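Quick one from the shared queue. A colleague (R.T.) flagged HIG1 domain-containing protein as missing a structural entry in our internal table.

Convert sequence to C-alpha cells.
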Amino acid sequence: MKIIDREEKEAHAAHVMAEGFRGMFYGSIISAGLFAYLKTRHPARFAKFNTSIKACVLIMPTISLAAFYADDGSLEFDKKMYSAGHTNKQVLEQYREWKNMPASDRIVTLLSTHKYKIILASWAASMYGSWKLVNRDKIMTAPQKLVQARMYAQAITVVLLLATMVLAMKEEEVKSHQPAPLPEWRRVLIDREAAAMESQREEVTAE
C-alpha cells in the first residue's frame, strides 16, 4: 500500500481545484445561454417559472460540470502519477514549479495554455454581442446593421490579435525566467541512481 505524502496531496488538490474551476467556467456559460434562451425565446413559459426554477437553471449546469471536471481531473492526476515509474516525479516537479511561480506568471501560463479556447470564445461572443447591440437600433436597415456589426467585430478581432501578441511576449518572458528542463535520459538516470542509493541504505540498515 502506497503512503501519499503531503506534497502529493497538495498537488492532487490543486489539480482537482483547477479542473473544477474550468468546469465551473464552462457550466456558467451554458447556464447563462440557457437562461437567456428561455427568457427570450419562451417568455410566456419563463414568466411562469418561480424563483427556485430560475435559480436551478442558473446553478445546476454550473455545479454539474464543475463536479464532473473535478472528478475527471482526479482520475487524470492519478493516471499521470502512477502510470509509469518516473512519471510521478515529473508531475511533482511541475507542481513545484507552478507553486513557486509569482501570481502574474501563473496567470500568463493559464492564459497561454487555454489561449485558443479563449480567443475563439471571445470572438464568438463579440460577434453575437455586436449583432445584439446593433440590432437594437430601429432606424437602420438590415444591411446597415450588418455593416455596423461587422465593423465592431473587426475592431474586436484586432484587439484580440494584439492581446495574443502581448500574451506570446509575456509567455516567452516567463519561460526565460525558468531553468532549462532536463533531458528525458537524464531524468531516468537520476531516478535510477536515487533508487540504487535508497536500496544501499536499506541494505546497510538491515545489516
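The two ends are 25 Å apart (CA to CA).
The mean pLDDT is 80.
Added to the table.
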